Amino acid sequence: MEQEAALKLLQISEDNGFRYTTLLSDGDAKTYPYLNTKEVYGPEIKIKKEECINHVIKRLGTSLRKAVKEWRARGVSLGGKSRGSLK
């Protein structure tokens, strides 16, 4: 559904005289490859993908919290005992 909506938006934009050449999305977006396979603006114009920094930070933070939890379960210290340490 999201892919079809994006396709329709891009098709309408060209009728109004402009083109979207960059797509801002999260890391696992299926819309980006879908739009490039549809070649909305023709085979010579490819849509570029930019990563949304909020999604990148969210994934990085989740991975770090998971790693800390796993290491704590093993009893491994990941830092000092002062303020801001991981243990």
UniProtKB/TrEMBL annotation:
InterPro entries: Mutator_transp_dom. It holds the Pfam family Mutator. The gene is AVEN_167517_1. Residues 1-69 form the Mutator-like transposase domain. This is Mutator-like transposase domain-containing protein. It comes from Trichonephila clavipes (Golden silk orbweaver). It comes from the Eukaryota.
